[in-house]
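Teaching assistant's notes for section 4

Start the section by putting this record on the projector. Ask students to predict, before seeing the second block, whether Glutamate ABC transporter substrate-binding protein will look compact or extended. Collect guesses on the board.
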Amino acid sequence: MVRPFHARRLGLTRRLGSLAFGTVLIAGCGAPDAPTPMFSGDFTEFPVSVGARIIEPSESAPPAAEPSSCAPTASLRPGTAGVGGTLDEIRARGTLVVAVDQNTNLFSFRDPTTGTLTGFGVDVAREVARDLLGDPSKVEFRPLGSDDGADMLAHRDADMIVRPVALPCESPQDLAFSTVYLETPRRLIVRDGSGISEPADLARRRVCTHDDPASVSALSHMAPKATILAVPDWDDCLMAIQQRQVDAVVGAALLAGLVAQDPNLDIVGPDSDSARYAIALAPGNDDLVRFVNGTLERLRTDGTWTVLYDRWLSPLGPAPAPPSPEYRD
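Reveal the predicted structure now:
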């Protein structure tokens, strides 16, 4: 079975991976397994993805506040589709401009058959367009880089951002957020037969996660003695575990898209602290924030949210109840 990799790294990575893995097998013949999980080397035996960071245990000491103690981001209460402001600008334009990550399987990715963007996050954006413009297809999707997209919103290059990055404990001042539309527990992805079944097994292991504050902080709490490979894209974690650069991947909703691409990977471990996802918007666009929250409230109450979860995130298990909104007004 051919497993998915980025085309730019496929040939070199496989050749290097085969040589390195063969060397390990020869050297290990007849030697008993170490009683304590250990690793060696400095990640140079395989080429890591561009922009990846290696965080040693001493560098990833847990901050004062536990991620599980963070309250959901409170947002503005849903309002009516009034006149003026950002809403009228979007109506006059005739399209909702949404910035998305375009290579995160099952969340926002290009269908290999049709070439169209699809996924859970994409469908949520289309539901906003359905309510605002009367047509879920009236969305212009623009690619989002590895940053948080605040500049795109500030320069009006996008109306909102739907990206697969969990909310940090302290929200950035240059972004406004909708209510939480997705909340899933953090768990582990491991290879079949890895012997890893819970966070305690990650001590002195290499573990991959997305390089954002919430994910790195959560992993440092779950496995304070692990070495973290923090990468700019979730699919880099898929390549890392397939090439045996890491022993596990820690994440939340995005784990569904990774295991769907490789039958040799499993989601294991008890539910850890939850990762929360919200739509990012430009500060000051209160009319749009309220409108988006109105759409999210509809998705929770009319069953659409559950339909979308079952369509895209079923590898995580049965659909839970939608996250309850928190409002500050």
